[in-house]
Amino acid sequence: MEFLRRNELFIKRIFDNPVLDTVLLSALIFGQSETHSLDALTHRLGITIPEEARHTALGDTIATADAFLKLLPALKARGLNTFGDVVAEVRKHGRLLSDLNG
After folding, report:
1. Segment 17-54, tens digit of pLDDT
2. What pLDDT is recorded for position 13?
3. Between residues 2 and 63, which one has the greater pLDDT?
4. Ramachandran bin of 55, using left for φ above 0, alpha for ψ from -120 to 50, beta for the remaining angles
5. CA atoms within a 13 Å half-sphere pointing along the CA-CB vector of 40
6. pLDDT digits (tens, 9 = 90+) for 52-96
7. Alpha-carbon distance 3 to 40, whole Å?
8. Distance separating alpha carbons of residues 28 and 22, to the nearest angstrom
9. Residue 45 CA: distances (Å) to CA of 38, 55, 88, 102
10. CA–CA separation, 56 vs 78, rounded Å?
11. Which residue from 55, 70, 68 is spatially nearest to 23, judged by alpha carbons?
12. Distance of CA 101 to the CA centre of its chain
């Protein structure tokens, strides 16, 4: 998203829609002390990324989608049942995202 946002003027599009970041969702579910990279998250959730797909756009996208789907029950267990619920919770932890990605 940061890449897209940095290029908004060039492509004449604004990306201001709410975004759910699996790094932050992982931190909300598993705690800040855990590692939240895509590799760590997929390992924790039992998701296998085929070696030829690792670190490719399509492979990472599929792994991220699989991770998101596996995080949904944990989000629901925390009372986060709608997209709006999750976005509101994520916004409470905005600084956490910059700390985890920084």
Report:
1. 888 888 889 988 998 888 888 999 999 999 999 999 98
2. 93
3. 63
4. left
5. 10
6. 998 899 999 999 999 999 999 999 999 999 999 998 888 887 666
7. 23
8. 10
9. 10, 18, 24, 23
10. 32
11. 68
12. 11
| Length of the chain, in residues | 102
Query: Any idea which residue has 């990472």 for tokens?
Result: 60
Tokens of 10: 């060039």
Contact (Cβ atoms closer than 8 angstroms) between residue 1 and residue 24 = no
User: In this structure, are residues 66 and 47 in contact, taking their beta carbons and an 8 Å threshold?
Assistant: yes
Instruction: Measure the CA dihedral 33/39/41/43, to 10°.
Output: -110
| Alpha carbons 54 and 59: distance in angstroms, whole number | 6
